[in-house]
Amino acid sequence: MTPVIEVEGLRKVYGAGDTAVHALRGLDLTVQRGEYIAIMGASGSGKSTLLNILGCLDVPSAGTYRLDGIDTSDFAEQQLSLLRNRKIGFVFQSFNLVPRTTALANVELPLVYAGVRRAERKARALAALELVGLTDRSTHRPNELSGGQQQRVAIARALVTSPAIVLADEPTGNLDTDSSREVLGIFDRLNASGRTVVLITHEDDVAAHATRTVRVVDGRVAGVLV
Amino acid sequence: MRLFEIAAFAVRGLTANKMRSGLTTLGILIGVASVILLIAVGNGASSAVQQSIAGLGTNILTISQQRAQQGSPVKPLTTADAAALVGADSPGIRHASPVVSAQATASFQGTSYAIGQFLGTDPRYFETTNSGVAQGNLFSDNDVQQARKVVVIGATVATQLFPGLDPVGKSVLVNNIPFTVVGVLTSKGSSGLQDADDMAVAPLTTTQNALTGYGSLNQIVVQAVSADALPRAQAEATTILNGRHRIGEGATADYRILSQDQLLTARTATTETFTVLLASVAAISLLVGGIGITNIMLVTVTERIREIGIRKAVGAPRSSILGQFLIEATLLSLFGGALGVAAGVIGSQFTIAGIQPVLVPSSVLLAFAVSALIGLFFGSYPASRAAKLRPIEALRHE
Predict the structure, then answer these.
(1) Which residues form the ABC transporter domain (chain A) (predicted)?
(2) Whole domain around residue B78: which residue ranges?
């Protein structure tokens, strides 16, 4: 079976010349379908850069990235936006919901860009909200929701297109303990139902939920703990 | 389907910030409305001037005295000159009325009023200038011969001196000399710059006796037999006056003949300048409105770069981001433009500063088109910049 993620010799350089910053220095990583990976590392180690590239939010300077067997190396912006829409669900540390827009509309957003019809869109968005336990908050705007609720809306948005992978960049970084537990519970359930999850974290107890922990040091994978 | 969804995002974006959208719309509204209205006012002023000049009669020549070159003698225009203009030698001329004008202040029962124009002439003058009488009568040739102290007053003078009274038969003091009001002229209205009703007309002889003395005439007003005969009448008048004033071939005349046409041309040129002035003021306000839209769109895009990042992160293609912001900008300017057209058209139904505006259809089209283009043009720069951002750059923007 093809791995969901296959990364070889990934490099990312910011700037040029003497001031160039090497965020990734030839990183290799393979993620199999159904895995739950926690990426850990000191700040500046390149783990966020890695996740942004995995989410097609950024492009590598060198190296290959195969997502679901598709080589993304020479994809143009138009094709990348299609990948982001169909294959990837991204959860951010700072939630990143569209302000002044209801939870339901936020969850529907990827489906709009996917060209899904209104009725089906609403049904799928409501189903995703139900999965994160927020059916009764569907008409609320982000500023009327707690941090934990906002993050759950963001997870629903990441799930609604049934992506190949769910990527999460420190999803519990801005949450209190109770909300963190809820959010991690959702990821656990997602993984249990067969979805591939890759998340970044600083905390060992978060990483404990994962099936595998990848340590990134200085832009390379340092060690794998099972 | 897709375009509709993008348009819906645009409308939601606009309604999410009603205050900002409203103020931008207001800016464009004012710009468009002022272009339409000011051009209409300018146009109205010039057509009012044309009408008032046409109302005076199109077959009139005005002969007035002109200072000749230094050294050469100036013969005054006289009543005899006026009389000589009508005769067998000049078949193109119907009447020639001698006119003197005086500075006059009239008073009636303690109210005094400085009359704009106090003229002394003969009864033909009324016919020549298309003046009718609203109340009472005009004075007659007999009044001129007898030098009776009678006066016909304009509508403005009547309302100033005799508010609520019938002026006919009343005795009025003009420069402390008693005159009897025999009639009130039909109102001609103001021509924007001058009130044609602020006048009084008395017999020539009386006016010379009582007010001006027997110097030169101020004008001889000549009526040609028809509008077509005007050039002929002008040539005849020139020949007769050159003979009487002994003006040789090629010498500068000591009088000047102006036709109504020339007057019209001069006045039209003035009002055209006026219209251009108004239009340029209006164009500036439209430009300011356009800069307002640019400004708002720049602010909107900058403020929502994060939102753009979010949309791109969930898979929005560049074209849909570009489309959304272009539609927002275009909707703003179209909406403002439409309201501006409405305001301009409604505003031009009212009389402004004594001028009835006359709409120029091309100005409505122009203002509306310019406002729409401004939205599209100035909206496209910030929108395309936003659409080109890499998602991660947009998301990191604070």
Answers:
(1) 5-226
(2) 67-253
Window 4-43 of B: residues touching A by CB (8 A cutoff) are 5, 9, 12, 16
Cβ separation of A117 and B1 shorter than 8 Å? yes
B16-38 confidence digits (pLDDT tens): 778 878 888 888 888 888 888 88
Are residues B272 and B242 part of one domain? no
**Same domain for B236 and B127:** yes
Q: Among residues B186, B220, B253, which one ends one of the domains?
A: B253
What does the mean pLDDT of chain B come to? Answer: 80
Under 8 Å between Cβ of B290 and B374: yes
Alpha helices in chain A (DSSP H): 47-54, 77-86, 103-114, 118-131, 147-159, 177-192, 204-207
Q: Where does a domain end: B220, B253, B286?
A: B253
A100: chain B residues, CB-CB within 8 Å: 16
- Is B314 a domain residue? yes
Instruction: Tell me if chain A has a CB within 8 Å of the CB of B318.
Output: yes
- The DSSP string of A8-51 is EEEEEEES-GGG-EEEEEEEEEEE-TT-EEEEE--TTSSHHHHH
What ipTM describes this predicted complex?
0.91
pLDDT above 90 for A107: yes
What is the rounded distance in angstroms from the CA atom of residue B227 to the CA atom of residue B248?
A: 29
Closest by Cβ to B314, choosing from A78, A101, A157: A157
Closest CA to B291 of B374, B386, B372: B374
The answer to the question of residue A62 being in a domain is no
Number of domains making up chain B: 2
Q: Cα–Cα distance between B76 and B81 in angstroms, integer?
A: 9
Nearest CA to CA, how far is B310 from chain A (Å)?
6
Is the minimum CB–CB distance between B353 and chain A shorter than 8 Å?
Answer: no
The answer to whether B309 faces chain A, any CB pair under 8 Å, is yes
- The answer to whether B68 contacts chain A (CB < 8 Å) is no
Tell me if chain A has a CB within 8 Å of the CB of B2: yes
For the stretch B106-119, pLDDT in tens is 888 888 888 888 88
Residues B35 and B124 in one domain: no
Evaluate whether residue A61 is within a structural domain: no
Q: pLDDT tens, A63-102?
A: 999 988 888 888 888 888 899 999 999 999 888 998 888 9
Residues B179 and B280 in one domain: no
